[in-house]
């Protein structure tokens, strides 16, 4: 099996003054070696929380309440913080939307890169300087910039430096949470192209998180759609370009201008995502779903898989296998 990451029945919860919040509920997905897997959904759907759970960046009171995260055969949820620190950067790195603002403004780029390299790998300072130069070259930034302070660089350059840092120890998996959202479109396009070139060159896998479905459709091999903490659909890019199955994904697709073909009127999805402390009975999406059936108000749909992907919706009941059946046949 060439799965690099296996997330199984992951649950992430936190306590709030009003009660327990199920921010991520029982989600399962895999990412293959060299694959770009996207997670998409409205803000608050749990996609960033999932990324934080995988990369151990959850802050209390949020915590993993169940499930397993296996990276290249290692169960991450069992690792101590020290053990996790050993694989951070060398096996898994994360790039956040705001990362470029997290560079220390009063420390030169060179020193920040070298500190990051030496914190995770033993090498002579001279070699670390050379490695820092090499990393800047990878993201098309001239070596002279090593002597700059972050405030002397544009947002796009700073985000490129963050990408260079994430690549420093050649990780197998890079999690990118809205990595270009804070940048203007032209700079964003340049950075996305760079990410794709580097991914081809080094072959790492990417978990790419964004609310921007058209961007996802351009770059991801497979896309997972989250709604109210749950994974409701997973599809290969080519399948999704032909049209989604889940009514929520269909709604998302209609909220953005089409990539190709005739311009159609954009339709938003009416209503709001549910309160995660008190979600509706049955299918979480039923109050907003144009295809809602009486059954949907009472029974939660199970996620089922077939050759097209996975979908959790009563409209497709009986058309696929359960996750247990799928994992039993793939072992
Ligand atoms: Fe709509 Fe019912 Fe499917 Fe939920 S299960 S998405 S309410 S059709
Ligand atoms: Mg987010």
Could you walk me through the main structural features you see in this protein, from its secondary elements to its overall organization?
InterPro entries: AAA+_ATPase, ABC_transporter-like_ATP-bd, ABC_transporter-like_CS, Oligopep_ABC_C, P-loop_NTPase. GO terms for molecular function: ATP binding. Residues 5-253 form the ABC transporter domain. With 331 residues, the protein is of the alpha/beta class. The chain has a single domain (3-99, 171-330), classed as P-loop containing nucleotide triphosphate hydrolases (Rossmann fold), CATH 3.40.50. The chain has ten helices and 13 strands. The protein has helices spanning 47-54, 81-87, 109-120, 125-138, 155-167, 185-202, 213-219, 237-242, 247-254, 323-330; strands spanning 3-16, 19-32, 36-40, 63-71, 74-75, 92-96, 173-177, 205-210, 222-227, 230-236, 304-306, 309-311, 321-322. It has a nine-stranded mixed β-sheet, sandwiched between helices. Strands 2-1-4-5 form a four-stranded antiparallel β-sheet, with helices on one face. A hairpin with a 2-residue loop joins strand 1 and strand 2 (19-32). The protein is globular and about 70 Å long. It starts with a strand and ends with a helix. It binds iron/sulfur cluster (SF4) and magnesium ion (MG). Iron/sulfur cluster binds at residues 247, 283, 285-286, 289, 291-293, 296, 301, 313-315. Magnesium ion binds at residues 43, 48.
